[in-house]
Structure formats: structure tokens, C-alpha cells
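Board notes (copied after class):
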Amino acid sequence: ALPSILSITPAKVKKALKPNDAAIEFVCYYDNEQKDTVYAALLLSPNVPAKHIYLFTKKEFHGYKFNRFLDLETCVCEASDKKKNYIYRDTALASKIWDPLLKEIPHHVNRIYSAPDGLLQMLAIEYLPHPDLERFIINRLTSTANIYTDSREIKNEKSLVIGGVVYDEHQIMGNEAKDGEMNHAAYDYFINQCGRIAFNHLQSTVVEADSIRKIIPVAVGNDSIYTTESFLKQNMGKYSIVHLATHGYSLNVMVKN
């Protein structure tokens, strides 16, 4: 899978874009001169040369102050609604992120595909209070490479879609322990950080899986055999598309750690 992803060049992504599209791939990398990680963006749009746009340093961005005592990293990494509201009401923060990009995006563009990195992954930057964002349709991606892969015709191959999972830790973890093949490093880390947490059954994920089944041919797994870590690790590679309708959980761990 990795060689396939690495083979997707900027030229392929650019070719997959429509005339009024732009793609923004955010990147973080260490800058020896500034002795800090810096944030930047790579901008692609048809018929326009690719551009690297410098944004800010990690220290400048993570330490952005809403008031004397509260910075961006704290607001992002803590669960307080009050602290989150600081982020999505701050026009100066919105301008800090978007102004350098909007200066470079061609005027005819009305759709933006963005793939965040670093702390930006934990921000809904498309919903920040910037008046110039209203003219765009903004689609969030894990990688702008998805623009190319999603543009290819979906073949009549079955995909794996899992929804309606019944979360039974003892049953699932017990079954997996017997095979002796899989480690549970991620699970153990979660338990160490947060303790044991019950995950409730999500009825809406059944609806989600059924909705996808109407669009593309899928093998929908609602039985417990399809929802173990062992099954997924051993079988996901057999499918061209895998969709997991399940809980999303963010560990309350500070990014700087």
C-alpha cells in the first residue's frame, strides 16, 4: 500500500483537480535556521505552478495566546467547551492561518481540498471565523493524494464495510488472545492513559453501513468475527476500500508530550 501511495505525484493530483479546484497539503518539518518545527503549505491548482507557503513556527502557533493565561495548544488538547469556543471565535487566529493561503489561491478557485498536519489536524480550520472562506467549498482530506485515488473509477470489487459493532471487551479480547499472533499495544496504551472505558453500541453506524452498501458493492460485517483486531489485520489487505463505522476517541494527551 505504501509504494502505491508514494507513486502518486503532484502532477497526478494536479491532473485530477477540476479547473476551479485547489489542493492544500499542510506540512510540518524541522528548520535548522529557526531551530524549531515550522508549518507550511503546498498549494496545487490546475494551470498554476505549485507553491510552498510558509506559515509559522510551532512555538508561535502552539503558543498563540487567547489571553494572558491561555494558549492554543491548551485549548485544543483539553475537553472544555469554553476553551474550544476561544478557538472558533478568534478572527485573528483565523487570519493567521488563512491569510497567507488566500493571497496565493487563484481568484477563480471555489473549491479547496485541504489535508492538515500537526496541531492543524485537531482544528476544524474550515470553520474558523474568516469572511473570505464563505466563497469556498472546503473538503477535508487525510492526504491530497486522495484526490487522485478518488478520481479513479471504482471497479466492481467488493469492499469491507463494518458497522453496528457490539463492543464486548471480554469476548473480543478473549478470542484474540487465543490466536497468539496479535499484540495489543494500542489497546494497552489506551488503558494505561485513560483506564477502562465502556463503548456503547451505535445504532446509527448500522444505517451508515447500509447507506454505503446502496452505493457500492460491499461485504458488510456486523457479526463479531468481522470486528476483531485479528480479522481486520489479516483481511483488510484483501479489499480495495475499507470503511469502519465506529467511535472516535481522542486521548487527552498534550501534543508537546
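Comment from the instructor: Confidence is low (pLDDT under 50) at residues 169-182. Residues 20 and 108 are 6 Å apart (CA to CA).
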